[in-house]
Specification:
The chain has 12 helices and 9 strands. With about 325 residues, it is α/β, with parallel strands linked by helices. The chain has a domain of about 110 residues. Strands 1-2-3-4-5-6-7-9 form an 8-stranded parallel barrel, surrounded by 8 helices. The mean pLDDT is about 95.
Amino acid sequence: MVAVRVVHLSVLDLVPIASGSSASAALANSTALARRADALGYTRYWVAEHHGMPGIGSSSPAVLIAHLAGATSRIRVGSGGVMLPNHQPLVIAEQFGTLDALHPGRIDLGIGRAPGTDPRTARALRRGTDPLGADDFPDQLTELLAYFHGDGPVLAVPAAGQEPALWLLGSSGYSAQVAGLLGLPFAFAHHFSGENTDAALALYRQTFRPSAVLAQPYAMICAAVLTAETDAEARRLALPSALQFLQLRLGTPGLVPTPEEAAAYPYSDQERAFIEQRMAGQIIGSPATVREGVRALVERTGVDELMVTTNTHDGADRIRSYELLSGALAPAPTG
């Protein structure tokens, strides 16, 4: 058995809301997963920012991070990420300054440059009439950093002097270059932009300049992984998330269906091909299958850390997937 190069292992949580369930149940499932990930030794637990999606409950990262950090004891907790164009930098600085003051040394601030939502929702978030986009991202980022350094346009309390770990997130080369030039850690969204992964990581490493934060590049990718006892069971549990993504692409976003609902869905040939392509870009299978898939991905990309996102209809299946993944990647005993 070929060993997997040891990298840090982390969690990205979209707080999936299941068919027949509720947002309250989804948040309870995420709390249970965060506690289990903490006990299993995962490095960090991030929550994403999404708005207006019935099947995703992670619309308020700062609120959720406060809850999850309070429910755990060791694991780093953060945003994967906060979409900076949706917010005034001062608000984010105050929120994450507060989080860092409450949980020193455990808070990550992952920043994305895309609005990540429709223009109407973006305007409602910012309560402005100006066109919203990523073009002013460098200025927004500069302002955000200034608040933590204590030299922003106004005094941000308690942001000034706090040091949440800042990460730049991306799905293309733009954020990779910015992260490199600023000497910041970089997280790439391999789970939905796998065709751009290698090029973005290469760009990040080529443009990297040492900083007070990092002496050398530190790259993480997020991959969609689902581990079950057998390959067949893993595929059965993965199909609902694939169908949910298909429905999103069709303009009819919904809750995470049950495996039975996903199996009974009347797929057209084109939809079935889309599902197969979607699942082919993920690592799905038994512990042995997933171990090999992770090994190949880590070796190919040379990343320092692997963040895993797993969406299932049942919260217990999701926890079990992370347990099996942790066991599959544990270093083999020596001696």
